[in-house]
Amino acid sequence: MTTLREHSRNAAADLIKVLRLSAKEDDADGAAVLIEKAIKTVMREHDSKARRALEKAQASAEERLARLLSSSPAVIYSFRATGDFGPTFVSDNIAAVFGYATSQYMEDPNFWRDRVHADDLARVEEAIAKFFQNGVHTVEYRFRRKDGSYCWVNDEQHLVKGADGKPLEVVGSWSDITARKAAEEARAAAHAQLAQLLASSPAV
């Protein structure tokens, strides 16, 4: 494989021929050094431009991802799957959906547990215990907003494992399903009322 110095010497020899200079060894070596320096400078500039272009592309991709997550109706979150199970990420739209700042989730390891409705907590924790066996699960429960009111959420979680098969992180999404739950309750109440009316009617 031809080295950079050999390429430079060949280029210097060709340059000397073109310029009709004396083909002394010193002249060729000197020209080769200059050409080599020029090539290295060009290569450094090229690498620098490529690195800047890559950094710009990465920043643009991160900005677009953040924008997409912020406009999503679901709040995306993640936390470590081992150790302290500490939070690692939450999308900015947690403020729009639940009223909380991202820092409140990121800095409080009990953020989720403290906001699940007391009547739902045991059922949800039982479902989560099975989750680490299955690697994916969905559960619905009541969750307290910042203003103190409760909303129904659909919580879907996926377990992310490393190359060695060990759990690394849990990635999940909270979706506000309060409207759907209200519709289901209204439909159930209507059915119950209809059943009561039919049961008390003297006609068959």
Oligomeric composition of the shown chains: single chain
Helix content: 55-70%
Tally of separate helices: 6
Gyration radius (Cα, Å) is 33 Å
Question: What about the largest sheet?
Answer: 5 strands, antiparallel
Give the structural class: alpha+beta
What's the total number of strands?
Answer: 5
| Physical arrangement of strands within the biggest beta sheet | 2-1-5-4-3
Task: Tell me the β content.
Answer: 15-25%
- What is the N-to-C succession of helices and strands? HHEEHHHEEEH
Q: Low-confidence stretches at least 5 residues in length (pLDDT < 50)? A: none
How far is the N terminus from the C terminus? 98 Å
Question: Could you outline the blueprint of secondary structure elements for this entry?
Answer:
Blueprint: H1 4-19, H2 25-70, E1 75-80, E2 87-90, H3 94-98, H4 102-107, H5 118-134, E3 136-144, E4 150-161, E5 167-176, H6 178-200
Helix pairs in contact: 1-2
What does this structure look like?
- A 5-stranded antiparallel β-sheet has the order 2-1-5-4-3, sandwiched between helices.
- A hairpin with a 6-residue loop joins strand 1 and strand 2.
- The radius of gyration is 33 Å and the shape is elongated.
- Helices cover 55% and strands 20% of the residues.
- It contains 6 helices and 5 strands.
- It is an alpha+beta fold and 204 residues long.
Summarize the structure.
The chain has helices at 4-19, 25-70, 94-98, 102-107, 118-134, 178-200, and strands at 75-80, 87-90, 136-144, 150-161, 167-176. It has 204 residues and is of the alpha+beta class. It is elongated, with a radius of gyration of 33 Å.
